Fold this sequence. Notes:
The protein is an all-alpha fold. The chain contains six helices and no strands.
Amino acid sequence: MIGFGLNADGILLDPSLQSGKLIAVRTEMEPLPLVVSRPAPIAFGIILFGIAHAYLYRWLSPAWPPGIPRRALCLGLLVFLLTFLFWEFFTPFNQFGEPIGLIAIELCFWALIALADGFAISVIMEQGASSQRRGTAR
């Protein structure tokens, strides 16, 4: 939301770069997207997705290589491929006709978000697991 929301008046809504269809959806067609008209439910939803990602991490991480960086990359890649890459292909590219160049820029932002998600969850979960192991070793 910060990367895209604060820059929405810039590159994402520049008519020389963006499809008119996407610009109309974001600025003219009623009802406006919630991220524009009422961002609080979207922010809450993002928190819920983060919690779901933590449960997904807890479920899948035992099968991944040990170590925070490796597991963070595994989760980040999983989130990127199954969420953000699919989203960009299906909605901006397919439905809105967004130019490939902008999709590439957006995918770079999404990759950073997926990595941040993976690292934040990996650090928290691995520190919690090591604290629990230390507590049971006493």
